[in-house]
Amino acid sequence: MRRRVVPLIAILLAAGAREAQSQLRGFPLYAVQVPRGVTIGGDVAFPNGDECPGTCAGGSGSVGYGRVGVSASVATSGFGGLVTISLLRAEQSPFTLVVQGGAAGTTNGDFQAPFGTGFSVWIPTPVVSLQPWLGFRGQYMNPGNGWEGDGAVHAGFSAGLSVTLLNGLGVRAAYDRMFLTGNDLSTFGVGVFFSFDTGL
Asked: Percent helix, strand and coil across the chain, each rounded to 5?
């Protein structure tokens, strides 16, 4: 019975992703593999536009099982959900390749849905594990330019670094940029997280 808990949670989160985070408004998209087990975290972000009232702050939770990871987040700028599928996993090689898709919204009715890929390298050391990564994506945004207009798809990328201690506690930082005609959106985010394997 206990072995069914993690897959069940993942299925439920995936079903609710349209209402839950993907790339929350003003936050970087972390294009990395979701660790096996459960991860909880908190992040702050500093966007270049008026995407948030000042800085953005939020919390997230994710579940990783096999090749699939599902996350949900709530922040001052909105809420959303993201599904990550690992094509290459760090358990089998130092390289990780993922594909991602999700959706995010705000209380004002703004909607965005990213879809893309990310590549990272897992670098273990005796004290910490380092994971630099780079991600590329398309992102549907409605309003199309971040504030007004019809919905449209824009290109974006993100890059960052995660540092994880042996006990599962870690920190992360990322830069993210969306390419919009005459109005590029960029943001820098930092956060802390804790991952633990339930053994299920």
From this structure: 5, 60, 35
**What 8-state DSSP symbol labels residue 55?**
S
| CB burial readout 42-77, b (16+ within 10 A) else e | ebbbebebebbeeebbbebbbbbbeebbbbbbebbb
Which CATH number is 119's domain given? 2.40.128.130
- Give Cα 132 to chain centroid, integer Å: 14
> 103, 80 in Cβ contact below 8 A?
yes
Q: Which domain holds residue 21?
A: 2-196
Contact 13, 63 (CB under 8 A): yes
Q: How many CB atoms lie within 10 A of CB 91?
A: 10
Tell me the residue ranges of DSSP E strands in 92-151: 95-105, 111-121, 123-124, 128-142
Residue 159 near residue 10 (C-beta atoms within 8 A): no
The total of structural domains in the chain comes to 1
pLDDT digits (tens, 9 = 90+) for 133-171: 999 999 998 876 655 667 889 999 999 999 999 999 999
H/E element holding 163? Answer: strand 152-165
What's the pTM value of the predicted model, to 2 decimals?
0.82
pLDDT tens-digit readout, 52-76: 667 889 999 999 988 899 999 999 9
- In sequence order, which residues have a C-beta less than 8 Å from that of residue 136 and are 6 or more positions away? 116, 117, 118, 155, 156, 157
